[in-house]
Amino acid sequence: MSAYDELMTFQRETEALSQVAGRLGWDMETVMPPGAIQQRAEEHAAMASLLHARRTAPQIGEWLAKAEPADDVARANLRLIRRDFERTMKVPSRLAADLARSTSRAHKIWAKAREAEDVAAFLPALSEVLELRREEAACLAGNETSLYDALLEEYEPGAKASELSAMFDALRPGLVSLREAIRGQGRAPQVSGIFEEGAQMALSTELAAAFGYDFECGRIDKAVHPFSSGSGLDVRITTRTAPTDPFNCFYSTIHEVGHATYEQNIDDAYLLTPLGQGVSMGVHESQSRIYENQLGRSRAFTGWLYGKMRDAFGDFGIAGEEDFFAAVNAVHDGYIRTEADEVQYNLHVMLRFDLERALIAGDLQVGDLEGAWNERFAADFGYSVDRPSHGLLQDVHWSEGLFGYFPTYSLGNVYAGCLHEALRRDVPGLDDDLAKGDTSKATAWLRENVQQHGGLYEAKDLIARAIGGAPSEQPLLSYLERKFGGIYGL
Fold first, then answer.
1. Whole-prediction pTM value?
2. CA 321 → CA 196, 433, 485, distances in Å?
3. Which segments are annotated as binding site for Zn(2+)?
4. pLDDT tens-digit profile of 358-375?
5. Does domain 161-488 sit in CATH 3.20.20.60?
6. Catalytic amino acids?
7. CA separation (Å) from 48 to 99, 100, 229, 322?
8. Which sites are catalytic (predicted)?
9. Which of 106, 119, 321, 485 has its Cβ near the most Cβ atoms within 10 Å?
10. What are the residue boundaries of the structural domains of the chain, listed by start?
11. How far apart are CA 471 and CA 475, in angstroms?
12. CA–CA separation, 318 vs 89, rounded Å?
């Protein structure tokens, strides 16, 4: 075999092992017995050590030096393997194992602390994870980049915190202005009643299928924090239910289906190769957000969903489709990022982005984090955090060491705004289909222009190819102003 062929054979085995490691994480979140956490932490550490050894194997460097790419696919594979090899070589195996072990433990500590509303119980574990991630960032950054940018690279290759900060600064005034205009317009209609869990899960399954989720290669389970896991032929999602809030379940499901179908729709030829997964978390989030919001919360689709909910739950306090559309898109005070309306969602993300940059830089200490969070939240939203699960303890990310992840949520929203504008341009009459619960033309456009390519192109290049120009925050702002101006009569 050629050097390239030998490299790809080795890489496919590494990708397969990485999928196994991911399945350990899915199991831990869904069905693992609580007493297994210490053993699972060691299992995670063992897998991390094994994967680190494979990703830093000396023969990878030899193959990379000799490999001759025959086409664009080979060139992209080599680019991604080289990036991963050079990055992983900078991190000691001991540190990779310590991170896996520490984050496994910290995740369970966070879950218990969140349930008990006990920040103090979580802070020691968070401090340990933070110090390990700062150590890793120092290994990765060297003298070439900032610690935070070194971590951001893992989730959004090529992105810089300064560029994202400038984009968010341009986005923020429009969001705040729109929110303040809406606050004077009164409350939107609200659903009422108790929504049985089994019926919620049944309708969630129907929604997942409506957005193209392949149940032959996937499944839906419940978790504290909804997520999507896996790629290729095994892509699983989770959701959650609340007896008085069915939208939490339905739109969490649609959101995770956006992530999952991205992975399912990647070209089969890329299976178990570096190209066989989403190119970046920002692009990934663009898929989940456009499914959830621009499609799933559109006037046309909510009209169809209203009928489905009437069939499943009977009268739930909403008089008709227009009131239901307003209820689904209500702008409301709230603490939880994942439950935030489209207007305020990115303000939640920006709060976390700024705090975690300060943590990584050493400008904010873990012991002061809750106070800093609560102070910033009150300044941004105009009311105070009432309990830790509505504040510092609400998100899973920092317990899992995902520093650098949060800004990709807002970047994904920006990308979704750009993609939606292009989708509407290229697929006229889309609302006629959405009103019947038929998303196939929209999802086919996304599959063709974004999803099938996997990691073939760099993230910015992929979005630019799909929309026919450079991405910016303006399409998202225009969409929000048009949509919510109509709902609230602005």
1. 0.94
2. 22, 16, 18
3. 255, 259, 285
4. 999 999 999 999 999 999
5. no
6. 256
7. 9, 6, 17, 51
8. 256 (proton donor/acceptor)
9. 106
10. 3-144, 161-488
11. 9
12. 58
